[in-house]
Amino acid sequence: MMAFIDGTQSAMSTFGGQNVGAHHPERLKKGLLRTLQMDLAYIVLFSALMLSMPRTLVGLYVDLDNAAAVEIGVTYITVMPLFICAAVWYRRCRAFFRGIGKIRIAMTATFSQIAMRCILSVILVPRYGIYGVCASVGTGWVLMVVYSSYNCIHYFRKTVDNRRTIIENEKINEEDNLMKKVPFVTKEQVEEMAKTWLTPFYVYDEKGIFGKCAEIKAGIFLE
User: pTM for the full model?
Assistant: First the structure.
């Protein structure tokens, strides 16, 4: 199952890096949610397979005559679908942060969940056996979902706010540029040109020009 997830992780990392480099952060959230939808569909299918034929799947790896190993494998396969969503979301966020260059967040998530799983395994496995393993692995995944989700929300809020600020500043600058009337020549240049071309091109009726343009437009539309 994780082979498919690992494949989409690589795609998510590439997608994130490309859009950050192209300055299109608005696509990141859509891409993350779209891959999550694909993952959920795959999770439902694979979980149904795990729950419906656990012994067959275990038989692919161990001898079915080994009753103890089969029992452990069947228990693990039937319990872990409860935590698969957490595993997928955690891996998806980790790939996302790798792609956008937030390596520290990805590394923290990875090492933290490994440490948590090891610590819980030492505590729970001697008492609960294979169920302790399932609980340790699942708890590590769930905690990383909380950590990764927090960082995702923080990143998107910060990115959206920055994007809005940039757009607002660009609009303000455009309005300021439109309102400013910057001469394209100096007074001395105009006086020099006036000696050659006597027509007073440098004096014009701005109000009259705009008025005539409005009349022309209105006449065209009326026709």
Answer: 0.62
